[in-house]
Amino acid sequence: MKRFILPAFAALAVALPAAAETETYTVDPAHTRPTYEVLHFGYSLQRGRFDKTSGKITLDVAAKKGSADITIDAASIDSGIPKLDDHLKSEDFFNVAKNPLITFKSGNFAFDGDNVKSATGELTMNGITRPVTLTANIFKCAPHPMTKKKQCGGDFVTTLKRSDFGMKYALGPLADEVTLHIPVESIKD
Question: Fewer CB atoms inside 10 A, N or C side of the chain?
Fold first, then answer.
């Protein structure tokens, strides 16, 4: 009887679906450079970026769970105009001397099938924390075509009011609404 039970358990174990697995990814700073857009005095949509980003992302696609812990160096802001960058780093905007980091922390990912559709969490900027939802325009996990390492990436977007983060300089002429894009690529640890 024992010689029939052991093979039966082995066959059952093979037939059961694999247990959910949480995978951890490290953000690739070379391919993760958040950008912003703001209407400038009603004339044009001005764009800039942040050049230094780091963080970790976890995914459990089978369980439809994920988390993100992203850090942006506020002093790495680049508008393309050095004098404007100095002003953006000042107390009128990001106050980088007092608040050097922008962070996004989320433990609430929404999925559509195996793809992340959004990440809801807390954005801390200029020392103020507010809830935000980043919506994925695209999202993909696959082996990198060159390194063959598993990677996940996407393009996430949210719109916020800069005044909610204490940035009230020139409100009116300079729009309050800012669109934040976070293109992210991450490599499996």
Answer: N
Kind plus residue range of the DSSP H or E element containing 9: helix 2-15
Residue among 118, 124, 122, 129 nearest 106 (CA): 122
Query: What is the pTM (predicted TM-score) of this model?
Result: 0.87
Q: Choose among 57, 58, 54: nearest CA to 29.
A: 54
In which band, very low, low, confident or very high, does the pLDDT at 19 lie, cut at 50, 70 and 90? Answer: low
> How many whole angstroms separate alpha carbon 40 and alpha carbon 181?
18
Average pLDDT over residues 23-35: 97
Tell me the CATH class for 19-188: mainly beta
* CB atoms inside a 10 Å sphere around CB 166: 17
Q: Are strands 23-27 and 150-161 parallel, antiparallel or unpaired?
A: unpaired
CA atoms of 104 and 126, how far apart (whole Å): 13
What tokens does 133 get?
């939802």
Q: What angle do CA 153, 184, 176 make, to 5 degrees?
A: 135
Q: Which amino acid is at 21?
A: E
Q: What percent of the chain has pLDDT over 90?
A: 88
